[in-house]
Amino acid sequence: MAQNNETAVVTPLTELAFRVLAERDPGANYQKLSMAVASAFGLAGIDIDRQVPDDLSAKPLADSDAGRYGAVLAALSQLQQGGSAGNQASAVMDSLTAAMTAGGRFKDGELRDAVTGAMEKLTDNNRLQNQVAGSGMDVLRDVFENMQHQGVATTVWYVDADPSTTQSGVPGSTVPSGVTSSIEIVGRNLHFGLHVTLGGVSCQLHDLRPTQDFEVHSEDEVVTADCPARAAGSAELLVMDDGDVASRTTITVQDVANASAVRAALQARAFLLQAGTGPANVSGTVRAVAPSINVGNGALRYDQLRTFLVKGVVVELLDLDVKDTVLMATSTDANGQYQFTGAPAGKNVAVRVRAQLLKTRDIGSTTGAQWNISVRDNTFKGSPKGMYLLDSVPFTTIAGNTTKDIEATLGFDGNARQVPADGSNRLSAPFSILEVAYTAVTKLQTTDPNVKLPDLNIYWSKANTTVIRTPVQVKPEETEAQKIERGEITTSKFASEGAFPGLFILGMADVDTDEFDQGVIGHEFGHYLQFALSYSDSPGDNHAAEEFKDASLSYGEGYGTAVGGLLTGSPFYTDSSGPLQATGSLTDLRKATAAGIRKGFYSEESIGYMLYKMGNDYGFPAFWKAVSALKNVHHSATVFAFLDQFIKQNPTVSLSDLLSTENIRSTDPLGTLPAGLAPDPAINATVSIGANDLEVLYLTVALDAASGPSASSTLVSTNSPSFCLNHRMSRFTSLKEKPIKAFENTLGLSRRFTFKSTFTGYMRLQPVDDRGKEFKPRYFSVRDETGQEVSILGYENMKDSPSLIAVTQGRVYSLKFVVDPDSVFRGNRCNNNLKLWREAS
Fold this sequence. Notes:
nine-stranded mixed β-sheet
């Protein structure tokens, strides 16, 4: 507050500081809080209680404290446009107050970005655009970037002490004694400057990354903390963010022997093929009912049903007199048949079919196929999430043969109405999902008899929906796991990390059901296979037809569609939706991308058609060999890397006509264009409003010659080429150039580099903008020439520090980073540079 008869300035920012003080911590130091609020709005060092701000409607934006203060207030006024001025202004202040921590920092990144977005809009405001022109644009950009640079307070959803065994939303809280523990921290706005301790001893942070989600936008991130060995007992894992406590978790440190036993029990498979010595034999066929597909529009037809065999699933013979004890277990064969031989007679039993595909290797064997795929209910209250089961009617075993056929009901009548209305008879849905999975894994087994897949949970529920409750209806601290347990999964998708790693399939009737859409299931199962057996560096996130997308995103989505069709044997990608599942979409994968639709490496439509045709024309084994080879190279997973591998393995194949049809202009793994080729007119500097390098996938950085380690960091990339960051292309979702929000997967927001290291040691990664100012990507990823991921290390307690990697002289590396589109002022910034430093010994 102003003292010594000084005039106190009252503005929306000072009001915000007072409101945060009153509502969060009335006993806090106002001066300290006011300074923190100023910093959060890009005004660090400016006394917002005494400095009189400029009025930008009356004078041009000046490079002064008053000018910068005035720019922030002008941006806030932009947020208050519309509606009655008083109500709108009050609503903005309410939102800002709710978005701030007690310490005066933003805890809501979206609202921070709304403020910086309003700053950008000042340049298009009819009253103010002349006031911020010229040198004022540089001042506005400074304030914009200062706000982005301040970051947002960290929110920790949970910590997972044993990610390798986490399933069904239950993070581990136990680590073994006597060894370094790797603990994953999951939340939002994570960074390497977090101070993480276990029992008061500092942990090393590394590998900050987004929780991988291939289909929808998520702000959630993961960082790994390596914590020093401890003796058995318990210890507090403390996460501190800029002096604030972000998380406290009690970790149990367990004796190694006990921990190993617990882990072994969790990983053990409870399935044994049994044959008894009794006189009873029980056998039968398992079937399920599904609607047919309208091949005109992709809708479901409940007036034309099909009955399919349920293949490869676990079947158990239960003793009903001893709490459903499993007497025998087997699996259905390729004809949907099961058989129990030598069961005891006179037992009250039932046959139980589990929604689980299970194939195991012999104990101690390293050959043969292996998979364990189950369908579970993500809305089940408890853990692990319940697996779907299908039971026969009870019966008594007798000497001789008993046949018990089992059929999973559809749960809909001929008019597409649920019967009963609560959907409780929709028993065939999990087995329809597994029909696709079975077809896929058996085809993979034909290609590779020793294919080994990681365990997979597929989450389906009749409550799974695209409908998401509004923020007013939910608590702001609600986790993604809580939303998932309500069925709010947004879309069918694959997530490789998080509390619920696995596939998610929509199921809400009359909104969007996907359990019978084989193309959708095959597409998402394809993402799982890419994660398990190949490589993906797709940024994921929202995507739709005709968008200009990052090369890894467009490849991943096109591959998913193509491999889904190849594995299921269907050329149609269908997706039903709407009331009675009577509408939908259908793509014939045999047809080239239609005229008028964008074609190129940034188009998932182009790549989906091209990859499906190649798999069809040259056989699935040739297609899959090229896909899986991407696991062992350093390049990003793009159509260029795929083509490079495919051509190397099939040198006599000619793809020139196919590539020309889909505007794929290179087969070099780095996407390097042939000399003299004119730029792609769809993504040139004119169309992108500034970027002239959107077709340059990789930049090669020639490192300086090696010299001995010195006492200080040494720049080794003095000739690093410049590059642009751009999300202007995201403004065009169709040829009509309709504006939309940019996401991180937009073409121009990922940058890739390759280099051969000239030394062995640690390298610091430092991207800088056109003014030499360091900027912070959302995350880095690095691979070496063998395809191995290189760990990204951070400096403890240095929030804004760049990242470190360990490098080996003579080895080739591929580096990629992704930036937040909201951090790029006015959508385009060129003349950026990547500085690589040899760290001091």
